[in-house]
Each structure stands twice: as C-alpha cells, then as structure tokens.
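I have been asked to look over a protein record a colleague put together. Alongside the sequence sits a line of tokens, each denoting a local backbone shape. I have pasted the whole thing underneath without changing anything:
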Amino acid sequence: MERNSRTVSAEDRDLIFLKNNILIPEGARCCSQHLDDDRLTKSAIDKVAPFSIKSKQFGSSDVQSLISGWQILFEQQKRFDFDNPLSLSDDEYQILTSLTKVQFDDLASYLFASNIRNSSNRSIRTALAILLCKLRLGLSLSILAVLFQLLDK
C-alpha cells in the first residue's frame, strides 16, 4: 500500500456493497491512484473482489441505515450525470457525445474559463453534454429534457 493511501468513503463502501455484494469495512484504505476527486474510480469499483468470505449478521438499525443510504443514492442518481466522474464510462462518453472523457473534460475546461456560468437547472458540463448529444444523436429537446431529467425544456 502506498504511503499516500486514502480511506474509502462511506458512499463508495455503500456503492460497492450494493453493486458487488462486498462489504468494505469502515476505515479501509486504498491507493490514491484509484481515486478521482476523493472517490473511487469506476474501474477501481469494478475490480473490487472479495479477499475472504465471511458471514456478517446485521442488526435492524444496520439494515435501516443501509436502506436509507440506498434510497439517498437512488434519489440522487441521474440517467446521464456528466458532473459525476464515476457515473459514465469512457465508452459511454463516446457513444453519447463522440468525445472521450478526457476530451470532454478538456472542452469543458475552456467553458469554465469563459463567462458561461452554471444555472439553477443545469451545470456547464450538463449543458455541454446536452449540446453534444443533440449534435451527435439528433434527438429533440423534449427527449433530451427527459434523458437529462430537466424540468423545463
């Protein structure tokens, strides 16, 4: 383990438990190369494998806490979330926008340096993603509003 290892966040531990059925103990650490913005990368989460198989008994408060955490996770989940680096793979970026994740980030950095600002409805990254999806896929604004979960078109 590297010296600059970091503690795995509660959100990432919950996500791994939900996605991979693997319980990561509180205080577990990982190398910083597996992190992006203090969150585990999608590829790191996909590579998690059990070290050993043990039974764990959960109390009612543990189960309620897990269910509450999952509810919050699902309520916050967007169909296409270009603001969260973990939500879409590089392939998904290319399919939707024709740009890799790195190219998308580079293009977005130019917009951050401009006078364009986030709005109450969408971030700069989401606005860029909508434009690129519109150009690449030719979808109507109504369909894009549904896919990006926007209240107004």
The chain is about 50% helix and 5% strand.
